[in-house]
Structure prediction request, 323 residues.
Amino acid sequence: MSDLCLGLDLGGTNIKAGVIAGNSKLIGKVSVSTGVGPDAVIANMIQAAKEAVKTARVAMDAIAAVGIASPGPLSSKRGVVFRSANLPGWLNVPLRERISGALSKPAILENDAKAAAYGEYRAGAGRDRAINDFVMITLGTGVGGGVVQDGKLVHGSFDSAGEFGHMIMVPGGDLCGCGQHGCLEVYAAASRTGQHAMRMLREHPERPSSLRQVMQTVGQVTARDVEQSAQAGDSVALEIWEKTCEFLGLACVNIVHAYDPQMIVLAGGMAAAGDFLLMRVRQAFMERFWKMDAPHVEIGLAELGNDAGMIGAAELAREAFIH
Ligand SMILES: [Zn+2]
Prediction:
């Protein structure tokens, strides 16, 4: 049997498709617009799959299995996407069967954040490390993640294991999109980091900050603005950035006590800040980790960027149907 697998990553804007070889290496990929409505989107996914195979210079017959990463909520067991905020018109779509039938290949369906975590584990930050227990925290518009234990992706009973964004860090804290207060997401998501800076500027008009001009000219402040100003020594930006890192360090402490991973990686746009993020998160982690023994976990950065979900989905298909 061939060891080539196809990964499909369904996003709100683009569909990514890639062919992954047995050594977890990506050998060809394409990106197409998502489209609107299940039928159009599924047709685009199938088209993307065919183009990816062409780009990789292999025959569709050589593809052993297909992995699909999709926004949820979904059931990985049933292969059904229940609905999605980013995919208008989707309701209980049997995506796995639709793709599997059209391409005549066995397929798996996985939540995109979990697929990305598995991708990093197999082919990115966790590659060649001989580790079995791995956690990824993704910092984007929201905060998501995934857990690998004993080499297997953890799903939980309703496919919602690894929702680190909704661990409550501050009882009664800021309102979260989930309806609760004080979740990690409201302190550490990229979108929220910019909002915290704007609030600080409004509440403290006496404090000088280079972010004030960004807010006045652009109308908003992003996490990237905060990071750049903090790097340049802006005291308001640095205060916000360090607060974000402190919450992430605290989240890592809680994750270690829950899962005891060998490695935790930070992913998403904010991870592009590199050591400026990582060193502070590590420091906050060390300060808050219990004093009974030294931590064994390594906290690092994701390496695959936007390809992680596509690669992870293909690797999950390999695990399900080849290994
Ligand atoms: Zn929440």
In short: The two ends are 11 Å apart (CA to CA).
